[in-house]
Amino acid sequence: MINRFKSKMGSLGLIHFSSWSSSFTRKSPVLVPFPASLTQNLRIPERKFGNSPAHFRFCSRRFESGKVETLSDDVDANQVLDLPEGKVKFTPEMRFISETAKERESCYRVLDDNGKQIMCSNYAEVGPEVAVKMYTDMVVLQTMDIIFYEAQRQGRISFYLTTVGEEAINIASAAALTLDDIVLPQYREPGVLIWRGFTVQEFANQCFSNKADYGKGRQMPIHYGSNKHNYFTVASTVASQLPHAVGVAYSLKMDRKDACVVTYVGDGGTSEGDFHAALNFAAVTEAPVIFICRNNGWAISTPTSDQFRSDGVVVKGRAYGIRSIRVDGNDALAMYSAVYAAREMAISEQRPILIEALTYRVGHHSTSDDSTKYRPVDEIELWKVERDPVTRFRKWIERNGWWSGEAEIEARNSARKQILHAIQEAEKVEKPPVADIFTDVYDCLPSNLVEQEKRLRETIKRHPQDYPSDVPV
Amino acid sequence: MATVFGATSAAISVSSNSRKLHLPSRRSLPGRRAGFLVVRSDAGANPNAGPRRAGQLITNAVATKADAAAPSAPSKPGHELLLFEALREGLEEEMARDPTVCVMGEDVGHYGGSYKVTKGLADKYGDLRVLDTPIAENSFTGMGIGAAMTGLRPIIEGMNMGFLLLAFNQISNNCGMLHYTSGGQFKIPVVIRGPGGVGRQLGAEHSQRLESYFQSIPGIQMVACSTPYNAKGLMKAAIRSDNPVILFEHVLLYNLKERIPDEEYVCSLEEAEMVRPGEHVTILTYSRMRYHVMQAAKTLVNKGYDPEVIDIRSLKPFDLHTIGNSVKKTHRVLIVEECMRTGGIGASLTAAITENFHDYLDAPIVCLSSQDVPTPYAATLEEVTVVQPAQIVTAVEELCQ
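The joint structure predicted for all components is written out below.
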């Protein structure tokens, strides 16, 4: 059988493989099939088997490293393929890169489960003012979520989506940025707006789509957007904000601004084509954009095991040539540090960064979903209680002496009062006028819209009982 | 967008200071620009019209012959160029004028563009302003939208209009909508352009007529150029517009030659062009079919007919003012288009004319379009799917009986 092996490696067709990996020399090709796993490296055996087929043997243990001197001389001249992107070394070993690394990529954290700072962690310092603001903003976010969700159940607003379990990602990432950094959200990041000073009244106005809404009543609840807070309007299309973010970063790059772009996406959104192209573009154009993926385990009812088979999202960064990190999304200090560092790199080195924040979507996907239908209640309880990011952060600030029980009661009461008041006010405010159906489609009204508006008004005048009375004409 | 229809005399002011416009800072661009020469091609006398250029009414669509009204200067005014060069000239002038104008697309940079429209621009303006993108139409269109929302004015080139079908999500859901859904906070002054239409044996996938698919999207404007003159003018107008504009070029028209003025001019985005005034029948067309119509017009004139040919140019919205005036005069309408029969521009135009000018029609509107088939490769088959001059002549003869 050995005689059949030619000195050239090209006679692969005659060889039977029982494992994926094997190696053989040119002088004395030896087949050593054995049930090795993919990741095992087979080396050239020290003992050469000569021409006798009888010496063909099975072996299940690893061989010592072989010597390359056994290879013929003309291999040396062609060790490397010189390509513009870099040199590529040739190898006589046929080895497939495994589909997963031996271990999953580790996750950066600064605070342990009890809110205690881990020794020897490198992180960005957070002073008392920032820490207290971060915590109180988390309280506002939590309270807002509870009350607005209730309002939807009461029929006062048509839709709502909570951020329960992801408060640390929202607030801590926002705290690490400046107001000049442009944010392109997906839809579960109202905390960024809270940090930047969007008031609960402004949130309520949008959810009630009244006249004071910046979106002029044109979008569903939670589709916030504010030019002055540098927070682009939420669009319902999943992952479409990712290429937008690259475009914004491209614009900042042309301006040479000391600012970056931050965009958010969920684990589900990373399946969209736009995610891949945006990452690719960002790397190619060297755009200062930070992609924060909130890997919360669920895309409505689709768990991540059905979404992708890679080790989460962080490993995809390398595929596009993007520096990436996996962070404990429920650790506010870790999020803060990672985003802070990412921002520095993005701006000074003009490169994109990918941050995968591991977390859990404690709430339902939205008010149109009941997640107990597809996941166990005790899983939800675990993350809600034991791994709550807000509690964890509170323990840290309390331990530092920056927070107290009284402050907690005060903060919660104040938030609750403000939000309830905001809802009451928002409900009373007039809806946007009929004219706003037609404005902003273009910069000014074209003749066909002028005509259509006229027709609509005539119809409303003729049949006022068929049109809602609370919409100003 | 200007409302330039006759009755409202809010015509754009003509100022001689067009060159002296100072470039505003990126984030405080005014919503409206005054002070550039808007050339109007009008069907009827309109005292409020801007200055009329001599020789504006082109009786022969392929303008290689001498202009009817050439001034008595010793050398001919203007300069001659091909349509793709006119597009490039318009693009280059706007890039020089406004530093926020940038181009992105596949092979637009050092390669100069598949149809050479961006040739030389990367060398002049750098490869950040003339950006080569990877092959992901939805994503580079999205990138352009994001850049536009931050104050740039990107021109997004699709190598072939058909490829922009991949960008439909970004064009419909984001480009057309974000100005509206953000409550006017973010504007999207992009220009999306590329060659479309039936070429010479390019196969079905490269012979798409996307204007029919995009026509319904609220928030965008669509124009189609057909001569070097209007190509440059429409390009400039589209770039200056604060609305997203889709500029449809045609693969077979890039090498058309014409003499265009040296001085700066911009065409109106909402106006149709009177190609040949007449009395007997109104023929509405755009892009390449304009040339088939003009060819048919020659035959028709020989047979004693007097067709009025209008290049509608503005596909969304239609210039119903010019079209209406023509219908009121001739009472007969023939639409010649390259789109498919079903759901094409012609179908939509038929509905608009019937709705608005029904009383003026002496005969039902006739619409000549391509059949509802993918465009075949074989040359003979391909020719049959496109409306030919002979069909146009027959249709006019039947219409005018």
